[in-house]
């Protein structure tokens, strides 16, 4: 599979990278969980968490999920590396990833005033060789008379098509199939394409690897 | 644990149940996945899906998740029953649930015109005896000058406190701990409390059972 640059399909950043606020200030981060369906799940999870490069990231793991704070390109690399490590065990593994930006606090955050920011869309990381099937949801959370949720969502879906991972619309989600690196890159790209115009954007993706019952359609 | 009625804390339905649109027309449904972390995961998943009462529901399962269409009280019963069945095996099992209303189509749906509708908040089902730990996110998706996302979210969190399952705010999510039936009831209640005023509302919850590393804080 070719790896066209996500940047080529970008709607353009809303701001220069140089003026990008720090991840802490802007609330840029991820929450994810790994579910290896094996009796030795603890070894697979801990092995994956230990193997990945955490440079530039702040991590907190509890009994439900792992919180990761950091810049978007590092989030993409870290998530790809961690989930790939679990997938390379050959075990049927599902990862659930939540990415959020623009809301530094908690679920009931008051969105801070200010313009929307998004850096350039990062390139997909090198192919992992792991085939992923995913269900993806994208939530632009904008109040105001000028809100136009759909424009960003359509751009994000179009971008997934250009990356070659779009495989259909389902109820509530878009289905993505392809190399794990490309699937996660499309999710991050969509989140940033919407984030160029909308300050608070969340996205959720459920990624399945090594499924005994599925595969790309 | 007591089971106070979620209805008592309801902000009140926006409409009578009698005028509630059909789940198909309003897009009322769920998408969920079960992740039993055992070598025999297929048996646990299929056993759970086979055991639950599907009366009044339409189900479609693919290799990533299961789509369920139906009225809110049946969704709550079905999800509680299915996830509890998997949990009763004693296996560490994580369920991820997405509930959506007000958007009959896919991720890029055009939200149909019309008022917001929500039925009465269903009572929690009988206690399952299973302790659940959960991370919950709630997304009111409303365009327009009168949008006020926070009012509904605060009502939903306050309702979770009254149900006795709120245990703290985390980055991007609210943490819930308690009997599985009460945790899922709080999620459905919050979705409906927001849904009384906002047409398109999605909510995601990751529920962990039998974790070897956690438990309520």
UniProtKB/TrEMBL annotation, chains A, B:
It comes from the Bacteria. Pfam families: Ykof (PF07615). Residues 28-106, 132-213 form the Thiamin/hydroxymethyl pyrimidine-binding YkoF putative domain. SUPFAM superfamilies: MTH1187/YkoF-like. Transmembrane segments: none annotated. Residues 1-23 are annotated as: Disordered. This is YKOF-related Family.
């Amino acid at each position: 599979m070719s790896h066209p640059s996500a940047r080529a399909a970008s709607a353009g950043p809303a701001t220069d990278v140089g003026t990008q606020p720090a991840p802490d200030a802007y609330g840029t981060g991820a929450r994810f969980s790994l579910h290896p369906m094996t009796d030795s799940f603890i070894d697979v999870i801990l092995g994956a968490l230990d193997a990945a490069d955490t440079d530039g990231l702040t991590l907190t793991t509890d009994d439900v999920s792992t919180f990761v704070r950091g810049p978007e390109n590092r989030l993409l690399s870290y998530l790809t590396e961690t989930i790939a490590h679990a997938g390379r065990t050959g075990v049927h593994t599902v990862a659930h990833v939540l990415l959020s930006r623009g809301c530094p606090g908690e679920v009931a955050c008051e969105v801070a005033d200010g313009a929307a920011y998004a850096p350039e869309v990062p390139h997909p990381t090198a192919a992992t060789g792991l085939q992923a099937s995913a269900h993806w949801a994208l939530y632009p959370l904008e109040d105001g008379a000028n809100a136009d949720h759909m424009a960003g969502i359509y751009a994000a879906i179009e971008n997934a098509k250009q990356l070659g991972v779009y495989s259909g619309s389902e109820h509530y989600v878009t289905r993505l199939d392809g190399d794990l690196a490309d699937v996660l890159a499309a999710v991050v790209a969509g989140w940033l394409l919407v984030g160029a115009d909308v300050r608070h954007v969340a996205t959720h993706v459920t990624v399945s690897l090594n499924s005994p019952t599925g595969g790309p359609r």
